[in-house]
Write a structure and sequence with these properties.
Layout: H1 7-35, E1 50-52, E2 58-60, E3 83-84, E4 89-90, H2 93-100, H3 108-111, H4 128-138, E5 143-144, E6 148-149, E7 155-156, H5 168-174, E8 179-182, H6 189-195, H7 205-208, H8 211-217, E9 224-227, E10 234-236, E11 249-252, E12 267-273
Parallel strand pairs: 9-11
Antiparallel strand pairs: 1-2, 3-4, 4-7, 5-6, 8-12, 10-11, 10-12
């Protein structure tokens, strides 16, 4: 019998051990890599210098991670810089989106029920980021007469009052910080609020433009009727001509006609002031 083993036979015996030794670390490495899933951000594209990612961070375009498209996250998350938290309107589009993304500001379950403003045939928003990015851009609550801004805070993100039929609890929460004032006969809300050292909050008029709300503050002896006019929501004074329904409360189905400066010599307005 030969005392020398076939070298090929030795190699075949050692080959499985060699494979086992190097395959274990490789499999572990692959497992580690699979756990490190990168988050890719969605961002706004409107601004020339700044943008907001879907994490709620605002940064300049040069600071964005080229791979993830996320902001560095060094600044405040959900920043409301330049925003009026009472009216929920901001002077900057990017900070409007950032502030809106705060769950405390925009409940997800309500945002996803809102219909997309444009086009008319569009459905509902698919995410809170979609809602905030769209709402801050298209909101009509900051516009008067279709083509002029009410103030420098013209990017608004509040949820439309007719989007989900808010309960009384939700309504109270959305009117937090708002002082409801009944104006004098023939007085506008701008004037009524100014008399109390406050200003009219235009985007809260829609919340008051509901019979159940008007009846809470006014007597509405002549029922609650749909009407057309910039002085609504309001109540017709008792000594008004009979054809104007004295004592009736009025609301409008045309949200775009709601205005802080509207008035009528035979009505008293219900005004949101802050």
């Amino acid at each position: 019998m030969s005392q020398f083993r076939n070298p090929l036979h030795v190699d075949l015996i050692l080959l499985p051990l060699f494979i086992l030794q190097f395959s274990l670390p490789l499999s572990a490495i692959r497992k580690d890599v699979s756990l490190q899933q990168r988050h890719y951000c969605r961002t706004t594209v409107q601004g020339r210098f700044f943008l907001t990612d879907d994490n709620g961070h605002v940064c300049d375009a040069f600071s964005v991670d080229p791979l993830s498209r996320c902001c560095p996250g060094e600044g405040d998350q959900f920043s409301c810089q330049g925003c009026n938290l009472v009216s929920q309107c901001c002077s900057s589009y990017e900070f409007c989106v950032s502030c809106c993304l705060n769950p405390a500001m925009t409940p997800k379950e309500l945002a996803l029920k809102v219909k997309i403003a444009k086009p008319v045939t569009a459905g509902k928003y698919g995410s809170v980021f979609d809602f905030c990015a769209g709402r801050c851009r298209h909101s009509s609550e900051s516009v008067v007469h279709e083509n002029a801004y009410l103030s420098e805070f013209h990017h608004c993100f509040s949820i439309p009052s007719n989007s989900s039929g808010p309960s009384s609890t939700q309504l109270e929460a959305r009117l937090a910080g708002i002082n409801i004032i009944i104006g004098r006969q023939g007085e506008s809300c701008d004037s009524a609020c100014k008399s109390s050292g406050q200003s009219c909050v235009p985007n809260k008029l829609a919340l008051l433009n509901q019979c159940e709300v008007i009846q809470k503050y006014m007597s509405c002896k002549g029922a609650c009727l749909s009407s057309i006019g910039a002085d609504q929501p309001a109540e017709v004074v008792e000594d008004a001509p009979r054809n104007l329904n004295p004592g009736a409360c009025l609301y409008t189905r045309s949200q775009s006609s709601l205005s802080c400066d509207g008035s009528h010599r035979h009505t008293r307005r219900l005004c949101p002031c802050a």
